[in-house]
Design brief:
The chain has one domain: Rossmann fold (3-Layer(aba) Sandwich), CATH 3.40.50. By secondary structure, the chain is an alpha/beta fold. It starts with a strand and ends in a 12-residue tail after the last helix. The longest helix has 16 residues. The protein is built from 8 helices and 5 strands; from the N terminus they run βαβαβααβααβαα. Strand 1, helix 1 and strand 2 form a beta-alpha-beta unit.
Length: about 230
C-alpha cells in the first residue's frame, strides 16, 4: 500500500492534487491547518472533501499565526481587491503569510515520518498564483533536500522523501480541466480570501479572480456562489 500525506486546504488546487494522488494509487492522509486565517470556511470544506474521498485519516491541527500577524489573512489588514493578474505578479502581496508553507510542510513531514511514508503531496502552483515565494519549484527542491537531511527517515532509509507537486507548472485552466477529467466536484471547494459571514466568495480578491480566470480558460462555469461575479 502506497501511503502519502496531503496538505488539504479545502481549495481548488489541493482537491485536484488529492484526486491526482488517488488516481496514482496512493492511500491518503489529509492534514488541514486552522492557523488564524480569516477565511475559515475552507476548513469545513476540507472536512467534506476528506469524507467524499474517503481519506484514511484527516487531521485538523491548530497553529496560531494570527499571534504574529503580518498578513491580510491573519491580521486586521484589508484584503486587496479588483487587481489584474499582471498587477498580482508585480510584488509579493499582503496576503502572503510569512513562512506559511515552510511551517505547514514541517508538520506534514513529521506526520509522514510517523506513518512511515516517504510521500508528501502539495497543491501549489507557480503559473497562475499571487507571487508567493514559497510556491516556486526552487523552494520545493530546497525543502525536499532539507527534509532528507533533517529526518531519521531521510538519513537512515534507502528511499528519499519526495514532495509531489503535480500542479506546479500548470495554468489554473489546465488544473481545472485535469480535475474535471478526474471527476472533481468543485462546488465542494472554497478559495476566497475574504468571504462574507455566510461563506459566500467575495469575487474580488486575488484568489477569486484567479479561480474565475481558470474556469473561463477551461471553458466551463464555476459552481460556487459569489457576492460579486469576477
Amino acid at each position: 500500500m502506497k501511503k502519502a500525506v496531503i496538505l488539504l486546504s479545502g481549495g481548488l488546487d489541493s482537491t485536484t492534487t488529492l484526486a491526482i494522488a488517488q488516481k496514482e494509487g496512493f492511500t491518503l492522509y489529509g492534514l488541514t491547518f486552522r492557523y488564524g486565517q480569516r477565511h475559515q470556511f475552507e476548513i469545513a470544506a476540507s472536512q467534506k472533501i476528506a469524507q467524499v474521498y474517503n481519506l484514511a485519516d484527516h487531521i485538523i491541527t491548530e497553529i496560531n499565526l494570527r499571534a504574529f500577524g503580518g498578513s491580510a489573512l491573519t491580521d486586521d489588514i484589508d484584503v486587496p481587491k479588483d487587481r489584474s493578474v499582471n498587477t498580482m505578479k508585480e510584488s509579493i502581496p499582503i496576503t502572503y503569510v510569512p513562512a506559511r508553507n515552510t511551517i505547514f510542510l514541517s508538520f506534514t513531514l513529521a506526520w509522514a515520518e510517523v506513518l512511515n511514508t516517504r510521500h508528501i503531496f502539495l497543491g501549489i502552483n507557480a503559473m497562475d498564483y499571487s507571487g508567493y515565494p514559497d510556491c516556486r519549484p526552487e523552494y520545493i527542491q530546497s525543502f525536499e533536500t532539507m527534509a532528507n537531511l533533517a529526518t531519521k527517515a531521510g538519513t537512515e532509509g534507502n528511499q528519499p522523501i519526495t514532495i509531489h507537486t503535480p500542479l506546479i507548472s500548470m495554468t489554473k485552466g489546465d488544473i481545472i480541466k485535469k480535475g474535471l477529467a478526474l471527476g472533481v466536484d468543485y462546488s465542494l471547494t472554497r478559495s476566497c480570501y475574504d468571504p462574507d459571514d455566510e461563506g459566500t466568495a467575495c469575487g474580488r480578491c486575488d484568489s477569486c479572480r484567479l479561480r474565475q480566470k481558470g474556469f473561463r480558460e477551461a471553458g466551463t462555469t464555476d459552481p460556487i456562489n459569489y457576492s460579486v461575479l469576477p
